[in-house]
Amino acid sequence: MSDTGGKSVWHNIRQQVNPEYLGMAGVLIGLVVLFTLLSDHFLSLRTFTTIANQVPDLTALAVGMTFVLMIGGIDLSVGAVLALSGAAMGVVLVDWGWPLPMAICAAMGVGALVGFVNGAISSWWAVPSFIVTLGMMEVARGAAYRITNSQTKYIGSQLDVIAEPIRGLGITPAFLAAAVTVIVGHLVLTRTVLGRYMTAIGTNEEAVRLSGINTRSIKVYVFVIAGLLSGLGGVFQSARLSSADPNAGIAMELSAIAAAVIGGTSLMGGRGSVISTFFGVLIIALLQTGLAQVGVSEPSKRIITGSVIVAAVMADTYRRRYAAGRRRGRKPRKPGEA
Amino acid sequence: MLSIRSLCKSYAVPVLIDVDLDVAAGQVHALVGANGAGKSTLAKILCGITPFDSGQMTLYDKPYRPTGRTDALAAGIDMVHQELMLVDTLTVAENIHLGRIPNTLGFARQHSMNRAASQVLQQIGIGSLNPATLVGELGVGKKQLVAIAAALANRCRVLILDEPTAALTGSETEILFQQIALLKSQGVAIIYISHRMEEIERLADWTTVLRDGRVAASDRAAALPQSAMVAHMAGESRRMEADRPRQPVHAGDALRVRNLSAGDAVSDASFVVKRGEILGLAGLVGSGRTELLRAVFGADRADSGQVHLGEQAPCRYATPRHAVRAGLAMIAEDRKRDGILSTQTVRTNTTLACLPRMATLRSWIKRRSEESEAIRFVDLLHVRCHNIEQPIGELSGGNQQKLLIGRWLMRGAEVFLFDEPTRGIDVAARAEVHRLIYDLAAQGKGVVVVSSDFDELMMICHRIAVVHRGRIVRDFKLDEMSRHRLVEAAVTGSSAT
Asked: Cα(A238)–Cα(A93) distance, rounded to whole angstroms?
């Protein structure tokens, strides 16, 4: 293990970087190569900036989802909360004339509040989070319709600061904010006490409780964070569409879950990575854009995307087993070995 | 009938090296060794759960190389596992027939299944148990017997018993021993894995001692007395058990529990532990010992009564967090369920209870100080692991237990509550756990130990309180302790001497 000098650059990289990320990056590059071969127009800066500017909302949701999955929970309400907080931002901006920073805070505040309710009910009343957030999905969606009178609310140019590409760079401030979210989320999960407690709770909650840690409030925090990030997702999406649409984010919770599991996050809790989730988001977005460019029809796109999700998780499971075998020094079995 | 030649198996390190073993029909072959010696791995290989690397096994002169549990079952090799493999939500009868439930077109024939199960239960002396009972409703001891019944119903030729008596009461153990004798007379070969030397001396026809994956000794049981077995297990003859520290004379109370009641299990229990004192709580399974500890610690709700820690105001702890803040620590009975985070690293498991202390602003974990603390405790407790990044689930039970104690040592506490601290761990680790308990007492901490093993309590405790039906019925000082008195008080609950 202690070989340092004299090895190839590739070897050094393999030593430094988490092998999980390398695998995910490999899949991404593979997809790029594939689409480049299939389409003349694919390989261009424009394609990549388009993809980058598409992903901020899903990224915010998927990071929150990773946190919730880490503690062994699930949050089905994130898509509806995205619509509700986007709607709330539309109302305070257009009808109440609030300035933009306060409107953003309002959107995230609404998300956090919903997250708090999710967390409080599921952890203090011990109702499974699947049920609580399934109900909340309907409640939040209904509330979004109520406050917008079921109509898309046009917001206009006020949000361009967020969703217009920065000149000379091609990408939007929203994407940068999403990238920062990923980095902060990764650091919270891997380097902080809260992150450690989350992993521990997802592994064995009772053991954590008996170690004198307040597991219930940590679970509430996690749902609040997921809500807050859904609110941020609402901001990103409204900005991209220049309007608040109460129909936004339908089935987006499923994309967020898909992104997380493609990244190797376990639905049973205790295992997951924010960076890998971000790779998952990129893979989904790349597939969407690439397949569209190649000219695949919408139905076929869905079939392919669905298959890729399952294949990715199968590959991840296989890789994990292989890695575990290698760590234990299991030799590959020779044919004909007695 | 079953013979094993130069069997090898390695994970990161070799676990079994050139193991030879011969098991004869109608014999009890005892397999002993410290935790991590390779007994469980060998058992898993035999019943097809784990593949082996090299070597040969033959069963009745035919090569035997199982690729899964079903292969082993078909060949007539079955195992009653240390960690019970029963389905809690199915009935006793369904568990006994699991995998081959009698059915008509997929519909279970409930009656004939229950009747057949009844017969097997009768055979092992628990005919009073209704086969339609859900397994989840049974205690650990009964579950163990059901698991044995399931193996019997399978008509196996080789039966592996891995620590079968760990959770059994005296009378249940007797039933098991009778069954073993019966099976022997029917020509079944039995491989018996246990830490309990008395049992091995009583049952075994042949004994094999494993040490670090090798056969250290293998001989007729009569030729391997207890002292010789221990010497072979340890690799050298050395005295393992230290002496308990002297009981302090003028010490304050570390913990007073007054009239504590919790649910049905604990009613009106009172006891006191002095600083530097080791108090044993003795009682039968189901007497409410565990529930009493849990109620003191706030793991379960206490309905009434008071807990008084040192000089602090009396109260009842609503959650473990309150208890821990006040200075209590509890090492739970079921390591796997209530203690370890099995997929997480040794480091994570050890530092869990005092992370904020190793973090800037109690939130940003300082990697260096966390690592050095973890390494310090791994060394201090002589934990055998590759490094602190190894998942704790890969370690042996004794090493896991030491790390769980380390978790609380790192945090620091005034009173330590141990629930069955040495269950399922080997002789050497047991001695180390005892030494840790002595150290705590010598430092003036209050220590409470619950154990089903009265001999162990008499060896390590300064005073033993007997629990019967959720209350403390009798208190024995050092010079009053005797096995007879303890058992009498635990069974009858009478507080008369």
From this structure: 12
The pTM (predicted TM-score) of the whole model is: 0.79
Q: A128-146 burial, b for 16+ CB within 10 Å, e for fewer?
A: ebeebbeebbebbbebbee
Q: Is the ipTM of this complex over 0.90?
A: no
Chain A touched by B110 (CB under 8 Å): no
Query: How would DSSP label each residue in B290-333?
Result: HHHHHHHHTSS---EEEEEETTSPPB--SSHHHHHHHTEEEE-S
Spell out the residues 6+ positions from residue A94 whose beta carbon is closer than 8 angstroms to its own.
A153, A154, A155
Per CB-CB distance under 8 Å, the chain B contacts of A203 are: 341-344
Q: Residue B160: which H helix or E strand, with range?
A: strand B158-162
Encoding tokens for residue B325? 């803040």
Residues of B with CB below 8 A from A211's CB? 320, 324, 352-353, 407
Tens digit of each residue's pLDDT (9 = 90 or more) over B197-231: 788 888 899 999 888 788 888 888 888 888 788 77
Whole-angstrom CA distances from B305 to B262, B269, B336, B446 are 9, 8, 30, 20
- Say if CB A89 and CB A104 are below 8 A apart: yes
d(CA B439, CA B433): 10
The structure tokens 């109702």 sit at: A127
State whether A210 and B12 contact (CB < 8 Å).
no
Which of A2, A66, A3, A25 has its CA nearest to residue A202? A66
Neighbours of B55 (CB within 10 A): 19
Query: CA A77, A80, A86, A88 torsion: positive or negative?
Result: negative
Of B355, B369, B401, B416, which to mutate for an interface test with A (greatest number of A Cβ within 10 Å)? B355
